Amino acid sequence: xxxxxxxxxxxxxxxxxxxxxxxxxxxxxxxxxxxxxxxxxxxxxxxxxxxxxxxxxxxxxxxxxxxxxxxxxxxxxxxxxxxxxxxxxxxxxxxxxxxxxxxxxxxxxxxxxxxxxxxxxxxxxxxxxxxxxxxxxxxxxxxxxxxxxxx
Amino acid sequence: xxxxxxxxxxxxxxxxxxxxxxxxxxxxxxxxxxxxxxxxxxxxxxxxxxxxxxxxxxxxxxxxxxxxxxxxxxxxxxxxxxxxxxxxxxxxxxxxxxxxxxxxxxxxxxxxxxxxxxxxxxxxxxxxxxxxxxxxxxxxxxxxxxxxxxxxxxxxxxxxxxxxxxxxxxxxxxxxxxxxxxxxxxxxxxxxxxxxxxxxxxxxxxxxxxxxxxxxxxxxxxxxxxxxxxxxxxxxxxxxxxxxxxxxxxxxxxxxxxxxxxxxxxxxxxxxxxxxxxxxxxxxxxxxxxxxxxxxxxxxxx
Lengths: 151, 302
What we know:
The complex is a heterodimer of chains A (151) and B (302).
Chain A: H1 2-8, E1 13-20, H2 24-30, E2 40-48, E3 52-60, H3 66-70, H4 72-75, E4 80-85, E5 88-93, E6 100-102, E7 105-106, E8 122-128, E9 131-136, E10 142-144, E11 149-150
Antiparallel strand pairs in A: 1-3, 1-4, 2-3, 4-5, 6-8, 7-11, 8-9, 9-10
Chain B: H1 14-29, E1 40-45, H2 50-62, E2 66-70, H3 84-92, E3 97-102, H4 107-114, E4 119-124, H5 130-144, E5 151-155, H6 162-171, E6 177-181, H7 190-198, E7 203-206, E8 218-221, H8 232-238, E9 257-259, H9 280-298
Helix pairs in contact in B: 1-5, 1-9, 2-9, 3-4, 5-6, 5-9
């Protein structure tokens, strides 16, 4: 009951819930929340029946574009995103991994051009037998989604 | 970006590959054609590669074009810290196309994105070397009369060897059967085995060279490349693991031909050179015609 109250306490904005506790700060980082001027509440290591320990982020007066929230699918595919307006959830947004990922993933190949010259990283998202693979656009090396190094 | 760039063998469809091979055959019949008169091609070799550079430069000169460039990064402004982006922009002011060898993986794709003129990848680190693949295909076609339904043995460094990886991709259009012969340390990476499975290409993996290529049409030997090893101890363990000798060819098929991207070190004994099945030197010569075909395609010259 108390938990629902906390979420509902946001008048307008975005709630990102059910983030695995060890991924919370990665989500903060890829959404650049450290540079965000709006009010933010971050909770971590909260008890969750579903995933054990979870993190939650509430951002007031801000709605993220789909391309921004889709980045979360990379590291926390089961996170829940709710858009709140006047204390009411107006949108439950499904996470969908984009076909191409720019900048947020670092290539694991030390000899890749993106690790040696001022070149922004670019990965293609490929599904191989139910497994999600990221393929570097430049050096063509592949890495499993869970092994991808987030910048 | 110029769409005519050749970065990876997968940039070409089966039809484009076959068109290059047809065009190469025409150049072999008549190598001196002045179709590139007045055109300037830059050869930027940030990493030395005598064979590839000389064959591209000969290809351009035989077509009547001119060459600018460098054969070693030490003599270029990249040694002063210039980025690849800047070098490519600068050179594209002077040249109609750029042939580039670079030690970093992915350098060619990046260059093709930023360059206003076409890029021909002459090797980017351990990633791609499409002109080598096309000359391998040309050599296979010439010696077997077809690319279809052949049994191809790939031998040696199947882990780091980019030529064998690209050859698998390119041959996937032509229903091959592969045999991978490598020590455990240098086995074919899983992603290429998955690729074969996905494309219904049968393959087997073995450790021993002897007797294992008797059913093959092509025996593709590779050198264990010291420069690709991060761990030199590993290199020392595997560097001389296979040596092909003439007597080992006794039971091989009459149409078998031995290919090697060269340079070879110890993996083919010199006593094989006089065997009619040894094809690696003529394979290198085929590189000239194939590169004439590539440069012509990239510059839209017939």
